[in-house]
Amino acid sequence: MSLEAFQLNGKNALVTGSHKGLGAAIAVALAKAGANVGCHGRNPNPDAACDEIRAAGRKTFYFSADLADSRSCPELIQKTISEFGSLDILVNNAGTIRRAPAAEYPMEYWDELIAVNLTAVFHLSQLTARHMIERGKGGKILNIASLLSFQGGILIPAYAAAKGGVAQLTKALANEWASKGINVNAIAP
């Protein structure tokens, strides 16, 4: 396969949780492949990924929001479409983890992790798919699951449950939206 097959020139992407780590690396890689990339994080300060994206000659912006707040999802999608004109690629990378023994696991931890790691993934995917279906050009949605989607884990019941949900949600959305030209996948680092 030629390198041209991996070019994303003219594509617009959004990577949640791209302030650092895996999300930042994904955002920069998409830009180096030719995409404009919107970045997101809870930290109010723009990140180094945006600087690298600009250095690659691509458009970018940084949007600070806590995805546990359901209002942030439509705002983030609207910002991306407003900045770039469309959204072709969504990477649901944002996530959080809280550790405690399951017998004492605080419900506020549970609620936060399910909201950020699973509900926001669905909400952002849903809003993105509506846009993609309306445009009629399809697109790509990539969800970041985890090996713990399949293994469970210790001291992380909400994280394991949410990431297990992401794995199943990905399959459900892939099945439903394939006929619309929307490719939905997950990776489990």
Assembly state: single chain
As residue ranges, the low-confidence spans are none
Total number of β-strand segments?
6
**Overall average residue pLDDT:** 96
Determine the fraction of residues in helical runs and give it as a percent range. Answer: 40-55%
Q: Please state the overall shape, judged from the principal axes of the Cα atoms.
A: globular
Question: What is the gyration radius calculated from CA atoms?
Answer: 16 Å
The first-level CATH class is given as Alpha Beta
The CATH topology corresponds to Rossmann fold
What class would the helix/strand composition place it in?
alpha/beta
Total individual domains: 1
N-to-C terminal Cα separation, in Å? 25 Å
CATH superfamily: NAD(P)-binding Rossmann-like Domain
Our count of helices gives: 6
Provide the spatial order of strands within the biggest beta sheet: 3-2-1-4-5-6
| SSE sequence, one letter per element | EHEHEHEHEHHE
